[in-house]
Amino acid sequence: MIIVTSNEIPGYRIGFTFGEVFGLTVRSRNIGSNIGAGFKAMAGGELKGVTQLLHDCRQEALSRLAAEAQQKGANAVVAFRFETTEFGGTGIEVCAYGTAVGIEPLDPAQPGRVPTA
């Protein structure tokens, strides 16, 4: 599954558009972790637990987006984006979204390469 932020994929032609797809996840940290992050925020520095939480959320949302695109028959997603929102002061909502498409290589002998000449 090719997933790109652009509206086109170099070396490929979009033959089919299957529509919007998304992956969504909402996660929260435990109370002890939230208290620790609060103290760290006062002292300054990276909130490593929150960074890891966001990373995990994005990976899960991206995986769900790819699964939905594949279920629709797509082999790529264009115009991909993430949207992140704080949820209730204790959690994070991450939405990955884009347009599911069916792509074909411009040069079937060399998929992924733009033909020269």
TrEMBL record:
Protein family membership: Belongs to the UPF0145 family.
InterPro entries: UPF0145_dom_sf (IPR035439), UPF0145_YbjQ-like (IPR002765)
Pfam families: YbjQ_1 (PF01906)
Source organism superkingdom: Bacteria
Annotated Gene3D superfamilies: Hypothetical protein apc22750. Chain B (3.30.110.70)
Lineage, uppermost ranks: Bacteria, Bacillati, Actinomycetota, Actinomycetes, Mycobacteriales
Descriptive protein name: UPF0145 protein OG579_05645
